[in-house]
Design goal:
About 20% of the residues lie in helices and about 10% in strands. The chain has about 450 residues and is an alpha+beta fold. The protein is globular, with a radius of gyration of 27 Å.
Length: about 450
């Protein structure tokens, strides 16, 4: 009798546990049949709010009420782009404010998911851009405002290779060879202004989307390729093209550089912040791995006055000037050289109190026409006169300015090959006129992510 009772109790316990486990599974499982962006185009799908069938062919009963829903497979992958899962972080400098500028005070902000180039734009990519317009077949594809290639080449297309020249140094070989010599193909392009970087983003958007459209035409997804050069476009909702390439905002750049996905527990708590785009308080690798041994220099920067690379035979960062865009370990987002090699242009207009009076969701400092109206086209390029150095006028129309803090001054982030380690901290920031060019500033592109959860899945599946 006791054995039977014991068996009965075990059976009851098993039944209760099984029911609980089944309930948990059922409650956590996504119900079948829910519409989403990727299945709503299928046959016999109906509107949830009207009950009318989608995609009823013209001439069929009910077609006058039917809504056309095209197939969507998710945002296409863009070349060289790495997915950056958005979230909350502490924006601002975590280093001592040695300049006493107080222009990047720490504050909490949230960033939407986006994409960013895994590397800086290299010489070979800029040469491809130049070759595109120097090809006679593309002579009619100059951007609005330009009627001849010579003007466009002089004002926009050509990097300033003289940025390497110095009265007190013999850098003549870089002036002559850095851009075009094959050995420098995958070194970051320099001598590029903020305005030139914007135009590269415009050209890249056109060429990438035209190439994607050609592939879609071959596969039958679209009937014909629009004339992208003359402003025709495929809508983003077609699922064929990608959003515009652009410069990252300062907040996006800083968020991506810190890459704090490697410093958190399984919940929302982060175990620590980061001074640099990697763990530890040093510019050398604190871990011992097969590829990057302990003590390996993690960035290309200037160690001190006159010390750009260390002693022959025992070089530290291995580079006197810039270096191969994949030369140093990537951060936890898979981004290379977010500290060192070259500093990078970002979208924002510079203000000393940058992040005190902007939104805490996707913050950006936009150019303002006046104190109340936002410029609707914040990335419009203003090209300098090819005969005179660019000199912006103030609100009175005078060409003499008392300060660099105006709407023509843009932020650049990160350390370069000629900067000390202080500038490797993602929160540090500097500024330069948007037509200014140096041998230490380059750039990389960014792009929005259309659909947060879809993007999150992409990262976890890789």
């Amino acid at each position: 009798m006791n054995n039977k009772m014991q068996l009965f109790k075990q059976f009851c316990l098993f039944t209760v546990c099984s029911t609980m486990l089944t309930s948990c599974f059922l409650f956590n499982r996504e119900p079948k049949g829910l519409q989403n962006s990727k299945n709503v185009h299928r046959k016999n799908q109906k509107s949830m709010v009207t009950g009318v069938k989608y995609n009823v062919e013209a001439g069929e009963k009910g077609s006058e009420y039917s809504f056309k829903v095209s197939e969507y497979e998710g945002q296409p992958d863009a070349p060289n782009m790495v997915f950056i899962e958005g979230g909350r972080f502490t924006l601002g400098s975590s280093e001592e404010d040695i300049m006493f500028s107080h222009d990047n005070v720490e504050r909490t902000a949230s960033i939407q998911s986006f994409f960013m180039d895994q590397t800086e734009v290299a010489n070979i990519h800029w040469l491809e851009y130049m070759a595109y317009y120097e090809n006679p077949d593309n002579s009619s594809r100059l951007p609005p405002g330009f009627t001849d290639l010579k003007t466009y080449r002089d004002q926009v297309l050509l990097p300033d290779t003289t940025v390497w020249a110095s009265e007190l140094a013999y850098n003549d070989s870089y002036v002559a060879n850095y851009l075009r010599y094959p050995g420098f193909r995958f070194f970051p392009v320099v001598g590029i202004s903020w305005v030139q970087a914007q135009d590269f983003c415009r050209w890249r958007t056109m060429v990438v989307n035209e190439n994607l459209a050609l592939e879609a035409e071959k596969s039958g997804k679209i009937e014909s390729v629009p004339d992208f050069a003359n402003g025709e476009k495929l809508p983003l909702e077609s699922g064929v093209v990608v959003p515009d390439f652009r410069l990252p905002t300062e907040a996006e750049w800083e968020y991506a550089a810190k890459a704090l996905i490697g410093t958190q527990y399984n919940d929302e708590n982060q175990s620590n912040g980061r001074i640099y785009p990697w763990d530890g308080h040093s510019v050398r690798n604190p871990y011992d791995t097969k590829k990057y041994p302990m003590g390996y220099m993690l960035a290309n920067f200037k160690r001190g006055r006159g010390d750009y690379a260390g002693i022959a035979g025992k070089l530290n960062d291995g580079a006197l000037i810039t270096e191969y865009v994949f030369a140093y370990p990537p951060n936890d987002y898979g981004l290379y050289n977010m500290a060192g090699n070259v500093s990078e242009w970002v979208e924002d207009v510079y203000r000393p109190n940058s992040f005190r009076d902007v939104d805490d969701l996707n913050p950006v400092r936009r150019q303002r026409l006046d104190s109340t109206k936002l410029n609707p086209d914040t990335t419009k390029s203003v090209y300098s006169d090819d005969k005179k150095p660019y000199n912006p006028a103030n609100s009175q129309g005078n060409t003499t300015l008392n300060s660099l803090v105006n709407d023509d001054v843009r932020v650049y982030k990160g350390a370069s090959w000629k900067d000390v380690a202080y500038w490797c901290s993602p929160g540090t920031r500097r500024f330069l006129d948007k037509n200014g060019r140096t041998a230490a500033i380059g750039f990389r592109c960014a792009m929005i992510m259309a659909g947060e959860r879809d993007g999150e899945t992409r990262r976890k599946n890789k």
